[in-house]
């Protein structure tokens, strides 16, 4: 579980993260979404104990990150944006090096590393990491983040540089980790990426969390459009509708696109029924979260 209270980071008088209040429950896969420079990496840096907050607090499984960063490191895994390894060492050698920080015995580490490398799709690779592609480094980064079998996983733009097959494998791994009861904090600037794996999302813009909830809740909260669009298709000619809540309507032979102040589908269907019309389609056209995200977050950049 992750909890932040008024978490703030100021760089040169500018708030990179501004009073972040957030709770991510155990087993939740939380998507932290925002455009470049929104403050995602800075917020994660404070949550994993690498950056000191200017103000506020952060707790991981109830442990105060600023007061006990080492305790927090034991129970967290972190895949940074642009993960770094020793280029002359192999994946096994790199991970063995990291395993010593967790006080793992060599034999225990060897078994775990072998299993993890297979898990992330690097089972048969035995060359120095310097010759790895970006995607391979991401895979190794994920193995490193899982090395200590952490309760809480922080993944900063984890699918960057992965090919489509790698993206699917990563999503599968993230879901499996959540099923095991791990908390996953996943940052991205791509909405589609988080929608696939996250149960909840938060949108950060200019350091401020502007919305938080399920994708549906966030979509409703961020939608500034007060009107709804209803698509109607009938058999035969579409008659004019008389509901006073209609703001605008475009009629076209057997169909209509109706803009109304409210969801008036029931009234439309009753009116059509009273005119003995056969309804072929009657649906609400909702804006996708992607459209709303682009309009609200990117437009304000
Ligand atoms: N060490 C630093 N010194 C000064 N300003 C910084 C520093 N690190 C980040 N910033 C600024 O803080 C803001 C947030 O940056 P951050 O890297 O956290 O954003 P981000 O959402 O992770 O972006 P990206 O998706 O590009 O990684 C930006 O305006 C950035 O320029």
TrEMBL record:
MF terms (GO), sorted A to Z: ATP binding; ATP hydrolysis activity
InterPro entries in the cross-refs: AAA+_ATPase, ABC_transporter-like_ATP-bd, DrrA1/2-like_C, P-loop_NTPase
Keywords: ATP-binding, Nucleotide-binding, Transport
Keyword Transport: yes
Family matches, as PROSITE patterns: ABC_TRANSPORTER_2
Domain of life: Archaea
Domain ABC transporter: 2-231
SMART domains: AAA
Pfam families, per database record: ABC_tran, DrrA1-3_C
Similarity remark: Belongs to the ABC transporter superfamily.
Protein name per the record: ABC transporter ATP-binding protein
Taxonomic source organism: Methanooceanicella nereidis
Lineage of source species: Archaea, Methanobacteriati, Methanobacteriota, Stenosarchaea group, Methanomicrobia
């Amino acid at each position: 579980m992750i909890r932040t209270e008024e978490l703030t980071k100021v760089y040169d008088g500018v708030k990179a993260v501004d009073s972040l209040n957030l709770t991510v429950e155990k087993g939740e896969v939380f998507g932290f979404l925002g455009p470049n420079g929104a403050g995602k990496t800075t917020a994660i840096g404070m949550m994993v104990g690498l950056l000191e907050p200017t103000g506020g607090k952060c707790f991981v499984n109830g442990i105060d990150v600023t007061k006990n960063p080492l305790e927090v490191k034991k129970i967290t895994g972190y895949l940074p944006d642009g993960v770094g390894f020793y280029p002359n060492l192999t994946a096994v050698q790199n991970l063995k090096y990291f395993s010593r920080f967790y006080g793992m015995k060599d034999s225990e580490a060897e078994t775990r590393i072998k299993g993890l490398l297979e898990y992330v799709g690097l089972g048969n690779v035995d060359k120095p990491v310097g010759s790895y592609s970006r995607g391979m480094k991401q895979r190794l980064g994920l193995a490193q983040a899982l090395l200590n079998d952490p309760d809480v996983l922080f993944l900063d733009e984890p699918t960057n540089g992965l090919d489509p097959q790698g993206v699917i494998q990563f999503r599968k791994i993230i879901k499996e980790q959540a099923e095991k009861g791990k908390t996953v904090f996943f940052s991205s600037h791509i909405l589609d990426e988080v929608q696939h794996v996250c149960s909840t999302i938060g949108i950060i813009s200019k350091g401020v969390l502007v919305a938080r909830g399920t994708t549906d809740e966030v979509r409703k909260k961020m939608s500034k459009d007060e009107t709804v669009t209803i698509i109607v298709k009938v058999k035969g000619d579409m008659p004019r509708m008389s509901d006073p809540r209609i703001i605008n309507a475009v009629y076209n032979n057997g169909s209509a696109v109706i803009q109304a102040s409210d969801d008036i589908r029931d009234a439309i269907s009753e009116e059509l029924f009273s005119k003995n019309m056969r309804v072929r389609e009657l649906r609400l056209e909702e804006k996708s979260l992607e459209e709303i995200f682009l309009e609200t977050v990117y437009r304000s950049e």
